[in-house]
Amino acid sequence: MAVESALAALNARVIACRRCPRLVVYREAIARTRKREFADVEYWGRPVAGFGDPQARIFLVGLAPAAHGGNRTGRIFTGDGSGDFLMRALHRVGLASQPTSEHRGDGLRLRHTYMASAARCAPPANKPLPAKFDACRDYLVEEFRLLTHLRVIVALGQLAHAAAIKTAGALGWTTPKPRPAFAHGALAIIAPQIRAPIALLASYHPSRQNTNTGRLTPAMLEGVLRRAVRLADL
User: Distance between CA 66 and CA 135 in Å, rounded?
Assistant: First the structure.
């Protein structure tokens, strides 16, 4: 319960965050103007907090909420093509209770898994500036610190991979030198001082740019997730 309470308090701080004026203006403008197909839907329009199992052994790090996905629904990887692709894979490997992630009240539960994005607000053109990752880093630091059962980090995309390594370094955890190169399926080991080693697995991001072109297939993503399950001793 202590971890759940601490995560809830952290999530409340994330949701109330207004550190980046440019992104506050953008996310709120998107929430007002909306997309035609969601014209009758009330958008979230705030930063998107982490989500999942407080006893998680696996942590999925994404990039940022999508303007009409997480920025609309208020939950990471929910309500867009990336979320659909990811959730089907998580369900197939036993880490999600259902293969869809449509809205916050849809009953989805993650098993042994927590997920959050490196940047918590939807950015223009879906491209967070480097300063945005810096502004949000303490949220990811706190999640890594609180999830004491963590055994595997799955970084979805090159920028999330870099953010995970920087976050581990900010905690004083030992990270590989030189910094491991990003490649789909690449494995590196992070060594916290007073915890078991943590595996860092890389995957291409499940964006439509990757999934529609075949750069990331369902089998490829599922393969990374199954490896994460094995490394987490689940």
Answer: 18
**How many other C-beta atoms lie within 10 A of the C-beta of residue 199?**
19
Domain of 178, in residue numbers: 2-231
134 with 162: CB under 8 angstroms? Answer: no
Which of these, 201, 133, 144, lies nearest to 172 by C-alpha position? 144
CB 164 within 8 A of CB 179: no
Buried residues in 112-128 as b, exposed as e (16+ CB within 10 A): bbbbbbbbbbbbeeeeb
Reported pTM = 0.96
- Min mean pLDDT across 111-115, 124-128, 147-151 is at 124-128
DSSP state of 182: P
Alpha-carbon gap, residue 118 to 64, rounded angstroms: 6
Q: Tokens 């550190």 map to which residue?
A: 19
State residue 130's pLDDT score.
Answer: 82
Give, as one character, the DSSP assignment of residue 43: P
Tokens of 202: 């890389």
Looking at residue 67, its pLDDT comes to 96
How many distinct structural domains can be found in the chain?
A: 1
